[in-house]
Design a protein that fits this description.
369 residues, alpha+beta, 60s Ribosomal Protein L30, Chain: A, 2 domains, eleven-stranded mixed β-sheet, five-stranded mixed β-sheet, 5 helices, elongated, disordered N terminus, cell outer membrane, OMP_bac, OmpA-like_sf
Length: 369
């Protein structure tokens, strides 16, 4: 039995149809491309307003739906601005406005790629499938925050119950040769959205304007507050995880990568392989052999952030070397293995939770292309 193939990222893992571990919370999330969902009920047409993609946002509190629209993915110096809006469809219940903030809550709590920040402004990512990269929201020095519409209610004016309200988010800059992206926002994937240049005009005086009354003013000067911009860009993975074998197989831009949780291989704070680790080692050998691998293989050990940096580095190196020795005894001489440790570097989950730390403790085996 196998779980279906899914697209994932390193850091904050994006998942199309799989179980997602987000900090201490583990929940099943179904992310469906907009093209695969029934067309949303129409919102009032506004002349001159671009509609690049549209999807439903479901609300589990009252069973209703709101309409999410992407109006622009705009390239600016040092960043990319995503304009989006949310509104109630025609025919929505008369009391829907009272519950409208529940839909907005979908932005607050959605899966965020690339960082642990919360809020609508942090819940946007751009996917370049062909280039194998995900571009997430740019983190700023204000802890757990990103550049974008902050604290937006998305509630329309009382006299315009079906009006959509505009929000925005600033994402890592896209390469110049990327002309279309898939937009991941509020647990929805909206495919094939064109990338254009420059900010939308005219600019409204309202920080959260109604669609058709102008566009939010984007504070580009605040790009100076961005920290660790490189951490907002991640390699994409196509990953298959067998349920009965604890070895994940991922396609990355560098080649095939096998990943084994440290809990499967080692006892706590140990680097010697117990007999119980044999199944995982045999599974990895079978995958390497089936791939027809020859040449150099790199075995890399990782730890969580608990403990001293130097100790974690040494532990990760010892664990990588133990796995290398076990593999070397079972693989042909045409394969060369190299071991390295990266300690707590390159975490794939939040080190602030038990579940996140467990995901970060791992050994990867990178096969050549």
């Amino acid at each position: 039995m196998r779980i279906t193939q899914d697209v994932r990222y390193r850091k904050g893992e994006f998942v199309k149809n799989l179980r997602v571990a987000a900090g201490a919370l583990t929940t099943a999330v179904l992310l469906m491309p907009a093209a695969a969902v029934a067309a949303p009920a129409p919102l009032p047409t506004v002349e001159g307003v671009p509609v690049l993609a549209r999807a439903w946002i479901s609300n589990t509190r009252d069973g209703g739906s709101a309409v999410l629209t992407v109006h622009g993915v705009r390239r600016i110096e040092g960043a990319t601005v995503v304009y989006f809006s949310m509104g109630l469809p025609k025919g929505a219940p008369a009391d829907a406005n009272r519950l409208f903030s529940y839909y907005g809550g979908g932005f607050w709590n959605t899966l965020t790629v690339g960082n642990s920040a919360s809020g609508a402004e942090c819940a946007v990512s751009l996917l370049d499938i062909a280039g194998g990269k995900a571009y997430s929201t740019l983190p700023i020095s204000d802890a757990n925050s990103c550049l974008g519409t902050k604290g937006i209610d998305f509630s329309p004016p009382a006299d315009k119950p079906n009006a959509a309200v505009v929000g925005w988010s600033i994402v890592a800059p896209l390469p110049k040769d990327v002309t279309t992206v898939d937009v991941f926002i509020s647990s929805q994937v909206l495919p094939d959205v064109p990338v254009e240049d420059g900010l939308l005009e005219p600019v409204s005086q309202d920080p959260v304007p109604v669609v058709g009354t102008g566009w939010p003013k984007i504070p580009t000067a605040r790009l100076s507050e961005v920290v660790d911009a490189d951490k907002a860009v991640f390699p994409l993975m196509s990953r298959v995880q067998p349920i009965d074998v604890p070895v994940a197989e991922a396609q990355t831009s560098e080649g095939v990568q096998l990943e084994i949780p440290a809990s499967v291989l080692f006892e706590f704070d140990r680097s010697d392989l117990p007999p119980a680790a044999g199944e995982a080692i045999d599974a990895a050998v079978a995958k390497i052999t089936a791939a027809g691998t020859s040449g150099a293989i790199t075995v890399t050990g990782y730890t969580d952030s608990t403990g001293d940096d130097a100790y974690n580095q040494a532990l990760s190196e010892r664990r990588a070397q133990s796995v290398l020795a076990a593999l070397q005894a079972k693989l042909p001489g045409t394969i060369t293995l190299t071991a390295e440790g990266k300690g707590e570097a390159d975490p794939i989950a939040d080190n602030g939770t038990d579940d996140g730390r467990a995901l970060n403790r791992r050994v990867t085996i990178t096969l050549p292309k």
